[in-house]
Amino acid sequence: MHDKDDLPDTTDLVARFMPIPTGLVTDALSRLGLRGWMDDVLPLVPGTHVVGRARTIAFGPIRGAGKPQQSMYALISRMAARDVMVVGSGGTRDNLLGDNVGAFAERCGLNGIVTDSKVRDCSGLRELNLAVFCRGPGVRPPSEVEPRAYDVDVDCGGAQVRPGDIIVGDDDGITVVPADRAEEILTQIEDLMTFEAGMEKAIRGGGTVEDIQSLLIKKKTVKRSSAV
Question: Average pLDDT of the chain?
Fold first, then answer.
């Protein structure tokens, strides 16, 4: 388990991912044969953007014998400012948090909350200065699952998230950048930005289908680092 800043400091990496849309992250992951995108996990408020280091909470079926050692509030208090809390729901239909949890996360300085569960108190959550990504509103109370583990690998929206990974989210959804591959992914993104500029120029400038198709080949071609 990790507390506050026990994880490697990724402040500089997070800053470099700030202006990058999820579409480019996905293309870079695909180039490298990686997977890191969530299904159906979208911003509660359209236009929301979030980037930050992942801190994870895993939910699992209620045991019915003894209560979890720590509440959601206690777990959030162990996270560092600018982190993104990622809550793996264990596939429940329950809502797992509302505006009180959101307000506490905001108070602790988190950049956002990402969960593949439903959420409640949506009007209150929308008023917070906190990015919330989820599978939409839900009134079903948390009766099936409970917090099971903190800062462990979790499955969230079909993506594996490890503590310290970099979360990038926008209107298209959430992407997960493996912390140990972040530099490689940034190298691919830089190259993909050049590709996208070329594609836009070809399409808007009247380029032929052949021109466009030749560019498409470059989209999937891995950019080799100059250090290699």
Answer: 91
Q: Residue 91's closest CA among 39, 145, 138?
A: 145
d(CA 34, CA 178): 9
Model confidence, pTM: 0.90
Task: List C-alpha distances in Å: 133 to 30, 99, 136, 171, 173.
Answer: 23, 13, 8, 10, 8
Could you read off the pLDDT of 178-205 as tens digits, one per residue? 999 999 999 999 988 887 776 777 787 7
* Alpha-carbon torsion (53, 162, 16, 169), positive or negative: negative
What is the helix (H) or strand (E) element at residue 23, kind and residue range? helix 22-31
Angle at 132 between CA 193 and CA 59, to 5 degrees: 110
DSSP label of 25: H
Beta bridge partners of 156: 159
Chain-centroid distance, C-alpha 195:
25
- Structure-token match 């949890």, residue found: 101
**Token pair recorded at residue 69:** 């050692």
Task: List the one residue out of 218, 199, 161, 126 whose CA is nearest residue 38.
Answer: 161
Which residues share a beta bridge with 176?
167
Instruction: Report how far residue 194's alpha carbon sits from residue 223's, in angstroms, rounded to the nearest whole number.
Output: 11
Instruction: Kindly state the DSSP code that residue 79 receives in the 8-state scheme.
Output: S
Residue for token digits 């480019």? Answer: 24
Residues in contact with 104: Cβ distance below 8 Å, sequence separation at least 6, in sequence order: 73, 76
CB 24 within 8 A of CB 172: no
Distance CA 119, CA 134 (A): 7
69 DSSP assignment: S
